[in-house]
Amino acid sequence: MDVLQLDVSGRPQAWITTREAAVIYASDGVAWTLGDPCQVLRGGWQRITGRQSRIEVHSIIAVRGAVPSRAWRQAPALTNAKLFVRDRFICAYCGHRCLPEDLTREHIHPTSRGGQDTWMNCITACRPCNGRKGSRLPEEARMSLLYLPYVPSLHEDMILRGRRILADQMEFLLASVPRSSRLHG
């Protein structure tokens, strides 16, 4: 189970482990939290009071101070796993839902013809459709797109990373995802 780390303004920064979150708690680096505690970590016993140290780790934490931010990047990193989730494992040409191992990253404008490896030029395609299109443009292959590509927002990117996301984390992230996003469907 991972913890969603935010900066103090509420911008998602990273997925971290509960142990990494505990270090932030112990160093008084947590500015505020959301969600219910997801794990309780217990430490040693205090000699004077006889009480055991305890840290309740919440599923969403905002970290004080300057956190290196990936939020200023123009676009999130493109990976096949995130692309397939963005496109809901559906081939953009035939519309069939496929298993990840039966899917490919398809370049609308082929790289062999100067197309870029970007979110706006890549869609999910099944192997047969990708082979049928080859290094042609969709119009040349007489294959039309059933949906259009888009660049995921920072909040969508956090969802697309494929982690086991808790309900309160998903609710927080989806609140900032446009209603038109395929992630709402």
TrEMBL record:
GO molecular function: endonuclease activity
Sorted UniProt keywords: Endonuclease, Hydrolase, Nuclease
Domain of life assignment: Bacteria
SMART domains: HNHc (SM00507)
Domain (HNH nuclease): residue spans on this chain: 80-131
Pfam families, alphabetized: HNH_5
Keyword Magnesium: no
Protein name as annotated: HNH endonuclease
Organism the protein comes from: Pelomonas caseinilytica
